[in-house]
From TrEMBL:
Pfam families assigned to the protein according to its UniProt record, in alphabetical order: ROK (PF00480)
Taxonomic lineage of the native organism: Bacteria, Pseudomonadati, Pseudomonadota, Gammaproteobacteria, Enterobacterales
Record InterPro entries: ATPase_NBD (IPR043129), ROK (IPR000600), ROK_cs (IPR049874)
Keyword Disulfide bond belongs to the record: no
PANTHER family assigned to the protein according to its UniProt record, in alphabetical order: N-ACETYLMANNOSAMINE KINASE, ROK (REPRESSOR, ORF, KINASE) FAMILY
Protein name as catalogued: ROK family protein
Keywords: Carbohydrate metabolism
Superkingdom of the organism of origin: Bacteria
UniProt key word Mitochondrion: no
Membrane-spanning residues: none
UniProt GO MF annotations: N-acylmannosamine kinase activity
Length: 295
């Protein structure tokens, strides 16, 4: 069986063929359309998947935002703006002519990372720190999505009630402090206008402001992990995303978390699938849907 797996993010769109052994082939990637309109996204998705659809038995799409009954709505318009009630499943079904499944990208990544852990772990939480901050929750071996598709949107828990405005409409969300977009937005003077990746490079070179910005991000994630531990009592926290997997970031989060009482500590590991987590996770769920589950 071959799955056309699609990953829709704030900065890129990716697609690949995934077989039932989780081998990835023919991976393609394009920038997310700058206009962020429904028409632009539909056109980009069509161009992305056209060369692959003839080789697949079904599609599996993972996207940032809320996915409810196959309909996508951007929770934070700054990350995927212009989209409200975007019929993601219907459009992909029409483009490909295939059956499929749609879900949130961090939920998909959580399922991929959970399956990679194997062992005796039944309760795990995945956190992605990238353009935004998202997550996925595995409870007793099951992926939680929730009736409204909201389960796991951990980036919109409050980190600082007096903090910056978040694109979701709340103030002081973890995402508004810890994400790559937030790191870049908070930069001033010599760092103003730089990307989070460039700010990390400046931090490695000893820039004091860059180090403060990254410390602020890591502190918000450490506090989030402590809260998650108390809410879920999970056995493992897995961190992914371009910021989360930046050199030294997980160690910094762990060091900050270790300053808390022991009860708040959690085992933290880096994501295994990195930028392919959404693709692998959605493919796994498609295989499960098609009664060919891979465990």
């Amino acid at each position: 069986m071959s799955i056309l797996a699609i990953d829709i993010g704030g900065t890129k769109l990716a697609a690949a063929l995934v077989d039932d052994k989780l081998n990835i082939s023919a991976r393609r990637e394009i920038p997310t359309p700058g206009s962020r309109t429904p028409e632009a996204l539909e056109e980009a998705l069509s161009g992305l998947v056209q060369p692959l659809k003839g080789y697949a038995d079904c599609f599996a799409a993972a996207s940032t935002g809320i996915i409810r009954h196959g309909v996508l709505t951007a929770l934070n318009p700054s990350n995927l703006g212009g989209l409200e009630q975007f019929p993601l499943f219907r459009i992909l079904n029409e483009i490909t002519g295939l059956p499929g499944v749609t879900l949130n990208d961090a939920q998909a990544a959580a399922w991929a990372e959970y399956n990679a852990l194997r062992g005796n772990i039944r309760d795990m939480v995945f956190i992605t720190v990238s353009t935004g901050v998202g997550g996925g929750i595995i409870s007793n071996g099951r992926l939680l999505t929730g009736p409204g598709g909201l389960a796991g949107h951990l980036g919109h828990l409050i980190a600082d009630p007096q903090g910056p405005q978040c694109g979701c409409g709340r103030k002081g969300c973890v995402e508004a402090i810890a994400s790559g977009r937030a790191i870049a937005s908070a930069a001033r003077y010599e760092l103003e206008g730089l990307t989070a990746k460039a700010i990390f490079a400046h931090a490695s070179a000893g820039n004091a402001q860059a180090r403060v910005l990254i410390q602020r991000s890591a502190s918000a994630i450490a506090a989030l992990i402590a809260d998650i531990k108390m809410i879920t009592d999970c056995q493992e926290i897995v961190i992914g995303g371009s910021v989360g997997l930046a050199p030294g970031y997980i160690d910094l989060v762990s060091d900050i978390l270790n300053q808390q009482p022991d009860i708040y500590n959690a085992s933290i590991s880096p994501a295994r699938y990195n930028h392919n987590a959404g693709i692998i996770g959605s493919a796994l769920l498609a295989l499960k849907m098609m009664k060919k589950e891979v465990l």
